[in-house]
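Bit of a strange request maybe. I'm writing a small parser for structure token strings and I need a real example to test against, not something I typed by hand. Could someone generate the tokens for this chain?
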Amino acid sequence: MKLAGKKILVTGGTGFVGSHLVKLLLKNKALVISTIQSQAPESYFQQQNLGAKVTLAPIDICQTSELTRILCKYEVDYLVHLAAQPLVETAYFDPQSTYKTNIEGTISVLEAARAYPKLTGTIIASSDKAYGKKGEKKYLETDPLMGDHPYEASKAAADLIAQSYQKTYNLPVIITRFGNIYGEGDLNFSRLIPGIAKAVSTNSELILRSDGTFIRDYIYVGDVAAAYLLLLENFKAQTGQAFNFGSTDSLSVLQVIKKFEEALGQKISYKIIDQAKNEIPYQSLNFNKIKKAVAWQPKSLISNTAKQIINWYEDYFSTKI
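Reply from user aminoacidic:
Good idea to test on real output. This should exercise your parser:
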């Protein structure tokens, strides 16, 4: 366990992806500090009782001085920046707060990291959305970042800013870009797979904002957490790099529904309203680089995770009735 005893600050550690990463870090005997602003009592973080196992720092990530204080106080070894406004539709209606959180928040994290020279390294979470629209080709880490709508632009800008800190100040930074993450604990029901789970669990109709043809990589949250763990364990050898976290589940919306129907052995009722805004028709990531660098590849598919995911959501909705 290479991270045993290491002090790791996770911004957004109480969120969907953060909770799974925190759980894995604790399993590997790391000492975890997580930022927190508010927390739903039914969240995965609370469900797993992670709050009792980590140090919680109730701070705003845009406050650089507060982040720096936390780094110094706990003598943090690694910083993983996951905190963000994560929803494309929210960004469309509220671009200003999205830019503030995703861009200013990232700058604040990088400034705090720059101010604390004992920090071994920082991982900045970007997104496949930062690449923008590139037709039907798998994205490579060397492709230019061309996000052209609020969410996409916020992630592209934060990504480029992180690169600039690494190159200008020789700051030890790794950037991660990933597709659509799914799994237990995602309570953003406007997303496809939580929406499917809600429809199945509550016997209701799934509303599809798109026309059902948009293609994305769907990557299980456990695989994402495992990738972060490997990068942290091998940080010095990989500093200055950007990595795609991809999946072999590169599917359209309707294909995802079909996968769940096959795994569950039942039909899912849905309605296409085709009102999606600013959606990119095709996005898929080439992940050969991280496979070669740290021997990571996704282990999970929708076909072998669907039942356990639906079981989690059924338990979640049973408390709502």
